[in-house]
Amino acid sequence: MGLRNEMIRCAQAAKGASRVAAELAAKQKNKILSKVAKEMLKQSQAIVRANQKDLAMARARRLTDAAMDRLTLTPDRIKHMAKAVLEVEKLSDPVGRELAAWKRPNGLRISKVSVPLGVILIIYESRPNVTSECASLCLKSGNAVILRGGKESFHSNLAIVRVYEKALRSCGIKASVVSLIQTSDRNAIDELLQLDELINLVIPRGGEALIRRVAENSRIPVVKHYKGICHVYIDREADLEMAKKIAYNAKCQRPGVCNAMETLLVHRDIAEKVLPDLGRIYRNAKCEVRGDALTRKYIPWASKVTEKDWATEYLDLILSIRVVKNMEEAIDHITKYGSAHTDAIVTRNRMAAETFVLKVDSSSVMVNASTRFSDGNEYGFGAEIGISTDKVHARGPMGLEGLMSYKYVVRGNGQVRT
Amino acid sequence: MGLRNEMIRCAQAAKGASRVAAELAAKQKNKILSKVAKEMLKQSQAIVRANQKDLAMARARRLTDAAMDRLTLTPDRIKHMAKAVLEVEKLSDPVGRELAAWKRPNGLRISKVSVPLGVILIIYESRPNVTSECASLCLKSGNAVILRGGKESFHSNLAIVRVYEKALRSCGIKASVVSLIQTSDRNAIDELLQLDELINLVIPRGGEALIRRVAENSRIPVVKHYKGICHVYIDREADLEMAKKIAYNAKCQRPGVCNAMETLLVHRDIAEKVLPDLGRIYRNAKCEVRGDALTRKYIPWASKVTEKDWATEYLDLILSIRVVKNMEEAIDHITKYGSAHTDAIVTRNRMAAETFVLKVDSSSVMVNASTRFSDGNEYGFGAEIGISTDKVHARGPMGLEGLMSYKYVVRGNGQVRT
Prior knowledge:
Chains A, B: Keywords: Amino-acid biosynthesis, Cytoplasm, NADP, Oxidoreductase, Proline biosynthesis. The first copy, chain A, has 418 residues and is α/β, with parallel strands linked by helices.
């Protein structure tokens, strides 16, 4: 009961703070963010020291090199983090926008106005810069945020949250607009996920296991993507040079991210023309290829692909390739094995492109572009709080807009219903 | 396990059908809806006969007169239902709208295009016309719908769904775009609510108990409002004639609905001028009044209001009244006891109105208009599938737009990420 009460108190404080945050003028929010950036640079050494505590414990726990790297904060990375806060400051204020307005025959003027969601709970894993990213975006969008980071980055996260707290206080705001869950009790998450009357949205950021655990236990709406099994389909009428460039980029430019391609689908009529070259390209990139029988005809060193491969997010230099007899088969494959994240077609045929766009039910559909563009910054949102493969609320890369709701405002001059 | 499998099969069929529905052209959907309206009139007698079976059972179960009335279908009501389908036909197609479009510096053209949500589950109580309302709106918006009506209206619902099935088949569509859960097993709902990979959205329509049960057991996102505790605040600078008209209308015009006023808040500086008249008005309307001490000073026949009253949705000719010392106190009252449904201010002071609009965190905020206007039809949506007091996905009255999601379409000419 101690933990439950502690979490309720924390969420109640955040709910109260969300009313303060919602009413902050754009100027005030920008002033706070600018103070955050300054304070972050000023406290750079303190943050590095806090981070070193985390790194020492991580070393003792024998984290992988990749995990250690994600966890590490250097003065340079802190500079970058402060710069990112200033980028958020520059974004236009998403609160109070008139999304639509119209007048009714009875004279009522109705407008749909953007308002903050309220309290956002972010549950994330080791990268401590997520702390600042999320805090700045929630603040800019007039929301209060409750942060629950991984225990590996606890001291780093706390040092970063202290920077936000100091900036808020120096602007006269005492409310818990940005708060960090400090208990190490793993049940804290489950307690928070029950508080649907206090918290408006949960965004889990991390591996599939974390996200599933959150989604399965939450009474609060969750926006999420479990994984990114992204496809590129090379159509019969593709520009083959373009196709090779895209197929290389989508897989190899940064294989460890959710918008990297995991499966390449090739129309059988051009398989002979494109697969041998692609085989060379992937071999040079040290990318393992797992293919069906026809693929292996053109890339003899490829290993046999299994049913399981089609449904696997490798997040690595591994690619599965299937030769399909037509676009329908490609779309069926994507429907069956895809994760509705991002799928691309390479084709010069406009009708094929439009059919693909219509029939592929994914949050982002690309025509003649790499799946790697599916990203809030690449879409011009200026920031990304997450990517959703759900259909409710926000879908695809989410910027500030994903943190907004709206209200209807109806202005009359005494109208009553008859 | 039998029930679970049956529900999974039903949801899988709906998911398959949702792909068919999503690709239907506006013309096809309108043709189907027009056939539905025709067929409904043609089968009017059969529907009445089915309804009589329900009525006979309801009589045996001793339903209240009000419940019997809600359940009853007459040839006239069926005509009205068919007409409502034609109204939905006339609405513009919400699918495939370009919600936004922009070009990136690298030449990528990004557009945000509306797409159907997929499969909608509607859980509702006795009124059988909800069956047709929901089926027509889901069809128009390119969604598949699973309907779970109350057992009292089972035969009526089935007869109405048969009309939709026949119209769909006659247009060559065999898929389960509109389906009705036919088992009487009450656990069917709980089984369906687990199928978050097959069903995209749940809309419970009915009493608070039903809605709470759905929200508590669902792994699928739910849009809902538990209740409507709507307030009217009469400001010190209100036009008093307007205030009385609105305060009467909001309470008495139709007290049994969610957008009727339950609590009236009156600024103390004008209480003396407005409450005695309102007392007469409510007495003439046979509306019971429960007031705080100051209210009872001006309406001596009013009974004492209790803390519980402030949080009660009467849905009846009962009103609680509180005299507040200023607008802040009114807003605090609304924040504490309101249900974020609809709240109104009556004032001539523009600044007061804008402060109220900003600070009242409800899905609809009215200025100088009756709360009764909070309604999809009154907002000009042409139809209403529900009202949401949640902040995620849809908020306030929901028309076709509330049944839509979107996808990002990115068109390039070979762009890759560097």
